[in-house]
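Running this now, will post back.
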Amino acid sequence: MGGPPKALLDVGGRRIIERVLAAVAPAVGNLLLVTNTPDLYRFLGLPTVPDVYPEHGSLGGIYSGLKAAPGEAAFTVACDMPFLHPEIVRLVVARAADADVVIPRVGDQLETMHAVYGKGCLPHIEERLLAGRLKIVGFFDHVRVLEIPEAAVAAWRSPDVAFMNVNTPEELEQARRIAKELG
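Update: finished.
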């Protein structure tokens, strides 16, 4: 969108990244931020790791975070989703041991940036990164995937709101309106 990073934009009196952390922190331990500009996020007091494969999009970020994360799996979320809900995070995280990828499905869309990825995904992701094939779901045929149904998500918040991300000035204005409605 130009200007400051999306994660640092204000929505409803808080930066988007602060909203993301408020939703994720109650449901997971060992928060980790993947960024190539750690100084911008130092105020959060979180450990940071750079992209292992810079300029490889979201798949590269998932790989970098998962590789650096302690334990056997990591919950991954985008930094530009201001209306995540802690109970939806818990819904996904609670099933982490059941598959290599635990991911909400909304209609035809898998919410790849609100999912748990197990360490068993690392070689499959790296293979795609090295080949320049950056579509996240591209490796799903090689791992066990558990889909969380839309109805389970909707019990906590409308999926259109929960998984909204801010990529344009129009979406930013829409997010600000939604923030006012949510209070």
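Helices lie at 16-24, 57-68, 86-93, 122-131, 150-154, 159-162, 169-182. More later if anyone needs it.
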